Amino acid sequence: MAAETHDIFITGLRNAHAMENQALAMLQPQANRIRNYPKVASRILQHIAETEGQIQRLERLLGDRNETHSSFKDMVMSVVGGMGAIGHAVADDEILKNSLANFAFENYEIAAYNSLLALARELNLQEAIPLLEQNLDEEQAMAQWLQENLADVTLQYAGLRKAGLTAKR
Prior knowledge:
CATH superfamily: Ferritin, core subunit, four-helix bundle
Order of helices and strands: HHHHH
Protein name: Ferritin-like metal-binding protein YciE
Distance between the termini: 50 Å
Coiled coil: 41-68
InterPro entries: DUF892_YciF-like, Ferritin-like, Ferritin-like_SF, YciF
Pfam family, one: DUF892
Organism: Kaistia defluvii
């Protein structure tokens, strides 16, 4: 059972690595396009830096087990993330679509890290737990920030539209 659980853990680490690459592919275009929402842009830039750190921690966990990430999964998920960003860019309510998608994706990441933590605890991988917890904490903080700021972003968007200003981004 331990060998099977370990295999599931390694697959989960590879999936999380690909997931974080998808997050970067979603967030980086957003950060480059946001104009009227400086608070959102700032938080996205902060989370991009956090995401880069999360990728490094995942690579460390894989390397400690003589494993590597899946370049194929990373590439596919990056393309998927980029396509989502492109799809939202053509929408009049791009900022709202991005905000909703980001909130959903953060909660997906939270679930993934909770799953990895359960496996790490089952395998008694004490060195992995704090690294995974740090990733989880950052994802939870971003999800909380998005939740707390969604109403303000929505109302700012509506106010800009009402004033006849560019509200899109």
